[in-house]
Amino acid sequence: MRKKRPLLNLPQVVTDYLESLRVRHFTPGTVYYHEGELRRFWLYLQSIGVAEFREVTRRTVENYHRQTWRGLASSTMRLSFDIDSAFFDYLEKLGVILLNPCRALAKPRKDGRLPRRILKPFEVRALLKAPAPTLKGIRDQAMLELFYSSAIRRAEMAALTLADVDIQNGFVRVNRGKGGKARVAPIGQRACQALARYLKEARTVWVKDPRITQPIEGLWLDAQYPHQPLCVQAITHLVQEYATRVLGRHAGPHAWRHSCATHLVSNGANIVYVQRLLGHASLETTQIYTRVSVPDLKKTVQRAHPRIRRAVTPPPALTREAAAQMPGGNRSA
What we know:
Layout (H helix, E strand, L loop, with lengths): L11 H12 L4 H20 L10 H11 L5 H21 L26 H9 L5 H16 L3 H5 L6 E2 L4 E4 L8 E4 L2 H19 L24 H15 L6 H14 L4 H8 L4 H7 L4 H11 L15 H6 L8
Antiparallel strand pairs: 1-2, 2-3
Helix pairs in contact: 1-2, 2-4, 5-6, 6-8, 6-10, 11-12
């Protein structure tokens, strides 16, 4: 459960902006982060005596960011900047302000850090074998297979419905992705087989409980009655529990997303296709989310670098007897 925010009467224009995000099908998590950032910004404006957003200048935004960005990661600073800029774009379109004060400011640079907690292929295999042969274990294995095959986010996984999965053709439809965008992601044969088994052996049993009178649209259901759809927090706890038990370390749903993309690139997949799979608007983002592993890089350097590669072993000398055995060979020659 997310922490409750302190009571603060936000301006009506902020409330309207947050509602516009919901209307545009932004995920609850996105709306939550937008609200938190705008709440902090409004508190700052009150502390310096600014009563309206039309009084905000470029210098005001610079001072606010200088005060609130201390000790934050580059990704957090970029998120804060993007939220502020999007809100002022909204005010500019409404005519509340003449010009977005964030437009002339430099966006924080990405730190270029590689994704952490990348699962190795043998770790993936161990995790996929971990679920027990129970109804709950059948569900968990199908979920892990889908995480690894489609690289979808945990909120996208929680939002899946029964109609979003096409097992026969090997596709899953993401209706409410990040930024309210929809996409279709392909899934592999093993993921399809695991999903088919879950739908036949586990989910069907749960929804046929005589105590359930209303149809359930969600794909992933709780193993306990009343078998309600799993929320984001429950899915996160489920994935982390397997990682802790099998690997002895933390690896949440996003680690599966990173691992899928990394393994695809390491095995020669075109990064443009990986971009479409992940649902990234920018190829630059995909390059940050994916990486070539250090062992693969080392093998490539050893194979290609002229000062490191091993000398090519010359073929053995052709003897007279071997030449005579070749097609068209002359034994007397």
